[in-house]
Design goal:
The structure is a single chain. The protein is α/β, with parallel strands linked by helices and about 190 residues long. The chain has helices at about 15-30, 45-55, 85-95, 105-120, 140-150, 170-175, and strands spanning about 1-5, 35, 60-65, 80-85, 100, 130, 165. Helix 1 runs parallel beside helix 2 (about 45-55).
Length: about 190
């Protein structure tokens, strides 16, 4: 299975996030899954790639051509695909992936995950979507989503479109056993 992992590219983050990403990558490789990701050498992205490489797994990096700074791109990608834009990068990542994981990251990570979540809500895909909540990183974001549900900006049923995990093994179990959600749960109900 090709699994897309979104995550931070910065090495300035706490090392526990990078170590967790390496663990995720090793577990993915052990189970025979390929990594689809943004081709970064640092942070969560680099950690995941190193973990997959350590386990002998396949790494497909997708990066825009303007990411040409020395050391930015992970050198040991099995396949490195260059795109013209960030938009085309995200589209290719979506097309090549069977499932999505949001690992700790910043604005780019949020953008990528929420675009896929929006597309899933609109029935444009039915792929598994997960959140790897290392050290409670996403706790406040999950609280905010619940707040938006309470205020009727998001339907309660949207929480069924993704699952949150602290353990990479349980997260991958979910992806491997995933059955697409019946998208009728998001239809407006007669009042």
């Amino acid at each position: 299975m090709n699994i897309c992992v979104y995550g931070a590219s910065s090495d300035l983050i706490d090392k526990s996030f990078i170590e967790a990403a390496e663990d995720l990558g090793r577990e993915m490789a052990k189970r025979g899954h390929a990594l689809i990701y943004g081709a970064g050498a640092g942070g969560v992205m680099g950690g995941t790639a190193r973990g997959v490489a350590e386990g002998g797994g396949k790494i497909i990096g997708i990066a825009p051509s303007f990411f040409n700074v020395d050391g930015m791109i992970y050198e040991n990608c099995t396949e490195l695909i260059r795109t013209e834009t960030m938009r085309s990068r995200k589209e290719l990542m979506e097309q090549r992936s069977d499932a999505f994981i949001m690992a700790p990251g910043g604005i780019g990570t949020f953008d990528e995950f929420f675009e896929m979540l929006t597309l899933k809500q609109l029935s444009r895909h039915t792929k598994a979507m997960t959140v790897l909540n290392v050290n409670g990183y996403f706790d406040d974001l999950m609280k905010f989503i619940k707040h938006a549900i309470k205020e009727n900006f998001i339907k309660q049923e949207c929480e069924e479109l993704y699952k949150v995990f602290e353990d990479p093994g349980k997260l991958l179990d979910y992806i491997e056993d995933y059955k697409p959600v019946d998208m009728n749960i998001l239809r407006f109900k007669d009042v």
